Amino acid sequence: INKEGNNNQQQSPPIPGEDPYETPQSKERQQFVKQMMKTAWDGYVQYAWAENELMPMSKRGHSASIFGRTKMGATIVDAIDTLHIMGMKEEYEKARDWIASDLTFNVNTGVSVFEVCIRFLGGLLSIYGLTGEEVFKEKAKDIGDRLLPAFNSKTGIPKAMVNLQTGAAHNWGWASGGCSILSELGTMQLEFNYLSVITGNPIYAEKVNKVMDYVVNKPLPSNGLYPNYIHPDTGNWGALETSLGALGDSFYEYLLKYWVFQGKRAHNDKSGRTGYDDAMKAVREKLVKKSFPSGFTYIAEGKGSGLLHKMGHLACFAGGMFGLGAKAAPTKEWEEWYLRTGGEIAATCHESYHKSPTGLGPEAMQFDSGNEAWTSNSRDRYYILRPETFEAYFIMWRLTHEQKYRDWAWEAVEALEKNCRCGVGYCGIRDVGRTPPSQDDVQQSFFLAESLKYLYLIFSSDDTISLDKFVFNTEAHPLPIQNV
Description:
19 strands, three-stranded antiparallel sheet
């Protein structure tokens, strides 16, 4: 018997006539996560309202460069669907009123197309889907329109940065020879398709579907793996590096989730997912490895013709992606592989938390002679309140109802509370290998959008944001699945 899974004894029996997985313990833990959300939100409201993020120790606002020189209330737009899902009515209304009266995208500054798409457009679309309140649709259309100029390249592949007022767009200076980044250009399909659905204007869907068709139909390098870089004007691949972590991750996620969004997973329809399955075939053959001596499954990174035996925290999302893609997989064997590997990746990411003195996982894990699901490089041991491991726990919990996923999530909640609670909110920590930890004084907007939402939903009933009715964008904003 899997010892982690054997914690059922101390659970009280389920309440008759209700969801068998809603127990007194799960409800209590769910409420604890809700209280964490209230702490994080209240600190932001009091000390950083309308700023992008909160610095909980300094008690002031914070803005990352991805948001340009703006105060666009990133935390408000990113967190509003979490407030709604958790039933935090007053807090939700305060957020909605600010969005209605004060949120403006008419600012003369360059922003990250990808980050604004997943956090702002995704957040607005999600809360529109949950409430039907017209103001959210209007604001979503406005920001969608301001992102469109990024697609004005010879191939239609978007540039990384766009000025929200002038529409001037350019790529990151550091990215391989003026290239666009796979995870950025490939993580707009859900948002822009849903925007076309609700506005009746096909332009948004056309832009992103053209990009995905172009990239998926383009011949790959000889190793069969997608490089992390492609040039938006020449269409040439950039440096031969492949990752399911940073620079690659959500491109693969959206290959699968666009199929889910169309209602095909719900109808057990195998069509329309070959782009995803073909990509995963190469990933399975070339990148999915087992560590020695413990046999942890991990996803290596491709570099040239070789491999880097490291896996970023960002790649932990793949535990959930593999699991979600098991249904209607091409064959029974693939179905079993997806579900099993999803669980194994979640377990590997849990191991990095379990090994850590703080109970929180590092930014990157190594798998080499000295490390297994850990890293001896202190530069890679920061933790900035990231959600990907909890996302994998959540999806795998919903698919299998194995108690260990709830247990692991609760371990994480306790570790967050112990190490990341700071000032008037929650902070990242600089080295998960050191106790007591050194805190970084930034409460990331995705902590409220993703980390706390996934942890809350793990302890909720299956029909709270059902995976049969909603698909999460890469910022954990649930969008309504079509045709169901």
